[in-house]
Amino acid sequence: MNSGIIYLVGTSGHPNFGDEFIAAAWLRHLAVARPDADVWLDSPQPGMAQLLFEGLHPRLRVTNTLWRLVHENAELPAEVAAKNIRDRVTGLGTPAYDLGILKMREAESLHLIGGGYVNETWPHHAGLVVGMRAVGELTGARLFATGQGLMPALSPAFEETPLFGGFSYARARDEPSAATYGLDLGLDDAFLGAEAEVARADAAPGLYVCIQNDMVDPGRFESAVELARAEVERAISEGIDAYYVEAIPGFDRTAYERLADLIPEERFVPFLHVWTHGLPLSDQQTWVTSRFHLHLLAAAAGARGIAVGMKKGYYDVKHESVTALGSGWPLALDGDSPAMPTQAGPMAANLPALLARKRSEAESLYPAAPGEPARPASNTAKLFNLAWSGVPRRSRG
Q1: Does the pLDDT value for residue 123 go beyond 70?
Q2: Are residues 17 and 117 located together in one domain of the fold?
Q3: Which one of 74, 134, 348, 382 has the largest count of C-beta atoms within 10 Å of its C-beta?
Q4: What pLDDT, on a 0 to 100 scale, did the predictor assign at position 156?
């Protein structure tokens, strides 16, 4: 086991703002805590992930070894898929996988970074945990899981019990996930990068909208757009500019086209702009969004808003984890049309304590290497901004 290799597993490279933000936050943390370590990110879309995260850690490598194993076995019965994955990791036997698996075996740790991708929506993703456990049993590598959203729960056919058995550390980000799997409740991994994202934000006051068109219950998209339209019309009547933010290219554009008669194209903020310039955040905003991480980060910045639940048992659990932390945002389900809050919730005021909890977790998993002095937590935002210092700001007229 090589003490210099850190192996991250995440669903990066779609691109999807939330998943990319989480991976970037861990890479930036490791660039400070473990700059001399080889960091491997196992991602379903390694080509795009390489572009998104270029320069965030000086020794980053990107692969898709474990994800290929999982996808190759996705259509098989769960017990057959699990056996195939374990056998491949431990037995080798094909040049299509051996080099990647041998690299995995060199890791000092394997870390399933946060997100809501190991659950009954994608039951075959449990194979990621199976593969990680097989490596740990073979080499003694430590296994971590942080910020996990595990709802809707896997059916018994798709899980090894306990799901995170053999892991050195595992935390869920929401109460239902923690209760179902007997895990301690932690925080979403986005909190690791929240301070820096809020610090680099440069947004005009106004109403910001993002409504997705993927993974929605029947009829939910139409009612969500109607809710957004009503809030945009109200803002315009009060002389407030409305903007539209894209978190996933394409899937978030459909709702904008329904609202383009109210929101001009110059106030459409595409994913590429969000990624290179930062999410537009301000405590002078209001939001209507179905995207979980936009809710989390906007509330962290002190914005008011309405969270829109698009799929029961999945997105409502996500949003409720943020309201439980004090976002103050009502959750619109079905045909609900809650009123925009008049005051921000306490989450922004409590943000320093939340950030300290997440930093403590990260530092416990990845203590500074011997001889590498730990940098003060207050420098985190400065280091984050440094990575984007060459990117010009967009003028907000």
Answers
A1: yes
A2: yes
A3: 134
A4: 79
